[in-house]
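Hi L., both proteins are below.
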Amino acid sequence: MHVVIMGCGRVGSMLARGLEKRGHTVAIIDQSADAFRRLSPAYTGRTIVGMGFDREVLIEAGIEDAEAFAAVSNGDNSNILAARVARETFGISNVVARIYDPGRAEVYQRLGIPTVGTVRWTVDQMMRRLLPEGSEPEWRDPSATVRLAEVHVHADWIGRPAFDIEKATGARVAFLTRLGEGILPRADTVVQEGDLVHVVMLERDAAAIEAQLGTKPEEA
């Protein structure tokens, strides 16, 4: 598919490289031509100097044929404005905006504009490692009803099927991280020492489920 990116900083340039490696076409927009120096020498996509929320600039970048748009400049206002233009003017449904202000990110997320809050993401990652018994959501749906979180499990859950966690809590084990790689659990998948357990659960049940998994499993 064709993807238009606004912002050729470290994130934008890496995103462009990753998309091209996966066989997609890319056009990247930035106010400064110097920013394109960050692109890999192997980059074959288009580079456009201009504002990413300008209609003519977006058309030059191929927005009319695009299936996705990413706004990753260093300005929250510019990113949100560009994301709205891409969605509302050009009908791009797959849109994401980078937002530094966590409060504003949550507002726009609830309005249906997917956002990536870099500060909040970093803090959440730190919290997850420092305080594993108090998991921070890895993802939360816009209505704040469902969360995906890495949950600390008591040592006695080790060696038991991941499905036992689901039966005991009513939550869903979305995946395990084992030696740095994600694993989708099957009926016979057993939780091993060192596994990180990622659970999908209702927000209202999160505290109870985390407390339950933090203690020994009840024997049937």
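That was the first. Here is the second:
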Amino acid sequence: MGIAVLYGSSRRGGNSDLLADRLVEGKEAARYYLSGSRIEPIIDYRHTEPGAYPEDDYRSILDGVLGADTLVIATPIYWYGISAPLKLFIDRWSQSLREDRQGFLEAIRGKRAYLIAVGDDEPGRKGLPIVEQFRHIFDFVGVELAGYALAEGNKPGDVLADAQSLAVIDGWRLTL
């Protein structure tokens, strides 16, 4: 068991990565850089004959997520939403529900998650729909949203000047 970190940024070492790294600093954590992984879009078989799902990195990342007690999800805010790599990964949860609904729900239920989203256009206000999105997702699958940080940053390293978000992240570190 332990911590699984999902990095949604298209740029390693960006602001959302910096905050996620700060949170898990000194902790053993499995790190998944979604933009460096091959995750295909979901194929929706709800109303058609089921076919094969893509053979990509989704299952191996999901296994790591399901094996963890705590999830850290870090994403830049792109056009007031989560990054495309993170969205692809979450969308594929529909595949896991279709393949083995009870097994997937049993494996993910009871985990706690921390959400980090970073943007430069009033993220404390305009990032709230992302928090709501994850509240609904987590309510559906039985994951506790233990905390969220909507941090401000644009250029690499800017987020390190967001004292309020750093205080939130540092407070979480005490509970991990």
